[in-house]
Amino acid sequence: MGKRIVCITVIIALFCVFTCIKYDRINLCMTYLANHTSDYGQFVYETNVNPDGFSSKKYNPVRHAGTLYSMYLCERVLKNNKLKSKRILASNYFIHKFVHKHSNGMYMVYDDKKRASLGGAGLALAGLSSLSEIAPDYIEILQGLGNFILYMQRQDGSFYHAYNVKKGEKDADAYCLYYTGEAALGLLYLNEFVPNQKWVLAAKKALLYKVNKKEYIPFDHWTLIASKKLFETPENSLNEEESQKLKDFAVKSADKIIKMQITDKKNPYRGALQGNLRPCSVGTIMEGLIAAYAYIDDAEVKKQIKDSVKLGLGFLSKYQIKSGREIGGIPARANWKESDNIKYSIIRIDFVQHVLSAFVTYKEMK
Predict the structure, then answer these.
(1) In the 8-state DSSP scheme, what is residue 144?
(2) Contact, 178 vs 123, CB < 8 A?
C-alpha cells in the first residue's frame, strides 16, 4: 500500500512538472500582459529589456485591440481567466479612449489624428464581442463597428482601409496588407455574439476577394485566421469552389513560408526564418500556419505545417524573456544581446500579443 501511494505521488508530481513546463511559456506571456496593464486599462505600449535602451511614448489603438483579442483567446481556448479582469479594464479604456460614435449607426476607432482605421474596427470586434454577454450596453457599439466595416466595403469585396474624419470621406490611398483579414475576422466574431447574416456574407466576400487576387501577396496571417473562423461559422454559405479557393490560398501561403524556415540543428536561431530573426514576425507566421492547418485537406502539407510550427514555437520559447522586470516579454530581435542596435531590445505590446496567440492556438492543433 505504501509503495502504491509513493508511485501515485511520483506520477502526480511528474504530471505537474510536465504541465508546468508545457504551459510555462503561455503563463510568461500572460504575466507580462498582466504586469503591463494599468489600473485604468492602458497598456504599457513599449518597454525595453535593456536597461540602457529606450522606448517610445507613442500608442497605437489597433495594437491595443489586437492585444484584447489575444487575452480573450486565453479564456476561449485555455479556459484560463487569469487575464479576464485586466481584459475588461483594457476594453473599457479602449472604448472610452478610441471608439467614437458617428452618424448612420456607425462607430469608428481612431486616436487624436482622426483617421479611423478598418483594422482597428475589425480587431476591436474580435477582442470585444464576447463581452456583450456580460455588458449588453456594448451591443450598440459592436453593431456600430460592424456597420462601419460594411460602409467601408466596395462592391467587389475589397475595402477602403481608412476614413478621414476631418474631411468626412473614405481615404482611397490608405492601405494595410492585414486590414482585410482583420475586418473579416471581426465581423465573424460579431456574428457569433450578435448574429446577423450580413456580417458573415461581408466577411466571406472580403476573403474571397483577397484569395482571388492574382498578384503575389505576402504572407497574411489575419486572412488565414479569418478563413478558419469562416469555415467554423454555421451557415457560412461557402460552396465547394469557394471553399477550395480558400484552401488553395492557405496551401500556397504555407508552402512559400515553410521553405524559408531555418531547420539546421546547429543554428542557434533554428525555427526562425532566413533573414528574419524578429520573434513577433515569426509569431504571426505561426498564427497563420496554425489556422491554415485547421481547414486544409492535404495530409502532407498538414504534416509540414505541424513540423514547422513546432520549430517556430521552439524558437519563440527560447528567446522569450525568462526573468527580471520584463519577464515574459518578447524582444524585437532574437539577437538583441549580440547587437549594438538599441532598437533590437525593445518590447512592444503587440510583440507579446502575437506570440501569446501562437502559443495558445497551438493547443488546438490535432
Answers:
(1) H
(2) no
> 108 has which bridge partners?
100
The pLDDT tens digits of the residues spanning 244-276 come to 999 999 999 999 999 999 999 999 999 999 999
Closest CA to 342 of 39, 58, 51: 51
pLDDT at residue 13, as a whole number:
38
pLDDT digits (tens, 9 = 90+) for 299-317: 999 999 999 999 999 999 9
CA 23 to chain centre: 19
Q: What is the DSSP letter of 107?
A: E
Nearest partner of 203 among 183, 219, 221, 217, judged by Cα: 183
What domains does the chain contain, in order, with CATH numbers?
2-364 (1.50.10.10)
Beta strand spans in the chain (E): 46-48, 99-101, 107-109, 115-117, 162-164, 169-171, 346-348
Q: Which residues of 200-216 are buried (b: 16+ CB within 10 A; e: fewer)?
A: bebbbbbbbbbbeeeee
Sole residue written with cell 489624428: 113
